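tokens incoming
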């Protein structure tokens, strides 16, 4: 579908709650799902806990322009974590902190889910705040955003920028360049918002397909990899692919509690958006373009290859994105090594001693060689005299024929004559 101190302080009691959307909405809502307790592979590889001593995303507002976010989810319900937001999909001023099909909830959880006792899944930036912006009821199954009204999407993007979002997560993609969406993205960028978008899930062959808003200037386009670091076959290729993130069977939060496995570039985007929140919290003076450059400069190589159109510059690395160059101090200048003055008298005495030792070894070697030579002469000369200096000969072996003995064996037939 498209669409260690901190661990204890962030942990919350885990009990399943039932979200209550506004009356009349979510007529076909997804049912609650069980929890997944194992540590997901994406969190194992990216290991966000390593970076939390330096940044947790505190003070950063990430807008999730999507299907809404279930703020009742146990890992998202901490007061102040998920704002009420606004629903641009329905007529009237409605809140957006509910979800009908879990797409936006999964995205928000990957970005900022709190730790919970006995649960391996947690967000990349657990102290970041989520601003839900509802522009669709359900995510698309083919990786496109054609079902989303471009005007509604543009309104949602502008709203997020006006609400002070530092990062906008757009887990959607379409083949059409809509002027209103392009202008809304530019509007957000003028407000120093970092816009991150999915590259889409429409790849079927080697054809490069258009993808918006990932292809707009300044937008970070995110593709998806599997557990082996290989691009998902559906993850689109093209010049709009800037970097990659886990997106194949990754764990995300589900509406009404629990978790689910999700695949697609939609779910790779929040790993980058969460990392952007970490960077913006750790480096508050960086502009959005500078944050984007930092994310690109600190990626890890993709095991699947180095094709720029397929993998961008590599896979996002939260730890390096935050910690590389964390200190602004220049390296200390190493002091020049001072060599002590040479004692010429002692050096001459040492050289003389070495020469005497060398001569002694040579003399000893000559004496030993002479002694060995004398010993050989004493052993060999008497024998040569007895043989009157004739060369010695070795006795010839016996001329009896040698019979090859066959190995012990059992014969099923009478043995051959040679064996009787």
């Amino acid at each position: 579908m498209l669409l260690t101190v901190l661990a204890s302080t962030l942990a919350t009691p885990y009990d399943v709650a039932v979200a209550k959307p506004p009356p009349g909405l979510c007529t076909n809502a997804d049912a609650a799902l069980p929890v997944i307790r194992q540590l997901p592979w994406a969190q194992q590889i990216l290991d966000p806990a390593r970076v939390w001593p330096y940044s947790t995303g505190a003070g950063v507002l990430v807008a999730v322009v999507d299907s809404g976010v279930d703020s009742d989810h146990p890992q998202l319900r901490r007061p102040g974590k998920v704002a009420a937001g606004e629903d641009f999909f329905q007529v009237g001023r409605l809140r957006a902190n509910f979800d009908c099909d879990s797409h936006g909830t999964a995205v928000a959880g990957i970005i900022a889910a709190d730790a919970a006792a006995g649960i391996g899944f947690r967000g990349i930036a657990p102290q970041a705040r989520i601003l839900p912006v509802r522009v669709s009821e359900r995510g698309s199954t083919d990786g496109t955003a054609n079902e989303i009204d471009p005007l509604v999407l543009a309104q949602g993007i502008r709203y997020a920028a006006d609400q002070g979002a530092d990062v906008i997560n757009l887990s959607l993609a379409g083949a059409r360049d809509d002027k209103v969406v392009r202008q809304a993205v530019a509007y957000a960028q003028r407000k120093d918002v970092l816009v991150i978008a999915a590259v889409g899930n429409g790849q079927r062959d080697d054809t490069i397909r258009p993808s918006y808003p990932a292809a707009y200037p300044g937008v970070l386009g995110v593709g998806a990899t599997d557990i082996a670091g290989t691009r998902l076959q559906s993850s689109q290729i093209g010049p709009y692919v800037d970097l990659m993130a886990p997106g194949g069977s990754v764990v995300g939060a589900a509406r009404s509690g629990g978790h689910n496995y999700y695949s697609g570039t939609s779910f790779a985007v929040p790993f980058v958006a969460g990392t952007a929140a970490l960077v913006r919290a750790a480096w508050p003076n960086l502009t959005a373009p500078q944050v984007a450059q930092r994310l690109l400069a600190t990626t890890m190589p993709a095991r699947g290859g180095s094709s720029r159109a397929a993998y961008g510059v590599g896979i996002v690395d939260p730890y390096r994105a935050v910690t590389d160059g964390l200190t602004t101090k220049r390296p200390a200048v190493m002091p020049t090594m001072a060599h002590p003055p040479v004692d010429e008298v002692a050096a001459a005495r040492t050289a003389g001693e070495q020469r005497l030792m060398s001569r002694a070894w040579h003399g000893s070697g000559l004496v030993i060689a002479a002694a060995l030579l004398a010993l050989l002469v004493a052993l060999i000369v008497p024998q040569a005299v007895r043989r009157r200096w004739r060369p010695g000969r070795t006795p010839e072996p016996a001329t009896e024929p040698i019979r090859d003995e066959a190995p012990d064996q059992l014969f099923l037939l009478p043995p051959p004559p040679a064996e009787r």
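note: The chain has ten helices and nine strands.
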